[in-house]
Design a protein that fits this description.
Blueprint lengths: L3 E10 L6 E11 L4 E5 L6 H9 L6 E6 L2 E2 L10 E4 L11 H11 L4 H14 L15 H13 L5 E5 L7 H18 L2 E6 L2 H7 L2 E6 L2 E6 L1 H6 L4 H7 L4
Parallel strand pairs: 3-8, 3-9, 6-7, 7-8
Antiparallel strand pairs: 1-2, 1-4, 4-5, 9-10
Helix pairs in contact: 2-3, 2-4, 3-4
The structure holds adenosine-5'-diphosphate and magnesium ion.
Length: 242
């Protein structure tokens, strides 16, 4: 299992006159097994920060440490993370089983172990009766669960979620939130979850990082952030009582 340390993490896009700094020195310690939500308005740098943890975006300064190992120079595949996106592209021609198994097959894992991992994930996500279906034969919520299953079977040390619920309707979003909470209770995998929705953040977070314009405004439990906002930005974004 793994803690995550962000040490003075900086991101700049572009070069020379085009240079744009979008992350301004973020420091945070996420504990092993903790569920942390990164919340803030659109464009504040949430995805950029998450993508740097994932290794999908180069870091411009500072250090990211996963499980005691500095990962700045490591490829995504070497980081022991799994990411769940908003636009979960499933392979349309493959069954649910094959969609979940695909990443393990290309790693040449023995089929018996693949089957065991997929069955376990399908059990947790209640997909056991759908393993032979194709994505088009599933509801939106079921597809989202397959996308999560694909992440689970890899047994990563860290889960990264980038607004995975924002394409779902309100009812499904609430239901999927409960599933994500159950998943975290059962597997205890250190998780970073990005959303622009403060209600979602308050519901899911053990602790939350509130961001504004590339800076971390506050890092605390939902209670702390709500009752003791660190800035007027946090108070108004979260809707704290005056
Ligand atoms: P969020 O996920 O919080 O909405 P992003 O991390 O996507 O924010 O974006 C943060 C800032 O960085 C925004 O101003 C955005 O326009 C800019 N940005 C994001 N990706 C790139 C990129 N590839 N090149 C240049 N600027 C980018
Ligand atoms: Mg984003």
């Amino acid at each position: 299992m793994a803690s995550i340390s962000l040490r003075n993490v900086v991101k700049k896009y572009g070069k020379g006159k085009q240079e744009l700094q979008v992350i301004h020195g973020v420091d945070a310690e996420i504990a092993d097994r903790e569920f942390v939500v990164i919340v803030g308005p659109s464009g504040c740098g949430k995805s950029t920060l998450l993508r740097m943890v994932a290794g999908l975006e180069e870091i411009s300064g500072g250090e990211i440490d996963i499980g005691g190992r500095v990962v700045n120079e490591l490829e995504p595949a070497e980081r022991d993370i799994a990411m769940v996106f908003q636009n979960y592209a499933l392979y349309p021609h493959m069954s649910v089983f094959d969609n979940m198994a695909y990443g393990l097959k290309i790693k040449k894992m023995p089929i018996a172990e693949i089957k065991q991992r997929v069955d376990k994930a399908a059990g947790i996500l209640e997909l056991g009766h759908l393993l032979d279906r194709k994505p088009r034969q599933l509801s939106g919520g079921q597809r989202q669960r397959v996308a999560m299953g694909r992440a689970i079977v890899r047994q990563p040390q860290v889960f990264l979620f980038d607004e995975p619920l924002s394409n779902l309707d309100a009812k499904l979003r609430a239901q999927t939130r409960l599933e994500i909470q159950k998943l975290h209770r059962e597997l205890g995998i250190t998780s970073l979850f990005v959303t622009h929705d403060q209600v979602e953040a308050m519901t899911l977070a053990q602790r939350m990082i509130v961001m504004n314009a590339g800076r971390m405004e506050q890092f605390g439990t939902p209670e702390e952030v709500y009752h003791r906002p660190a800035s007027t930005f946090v108070a108004s974004f979260i809707g704290s009582p005056p």
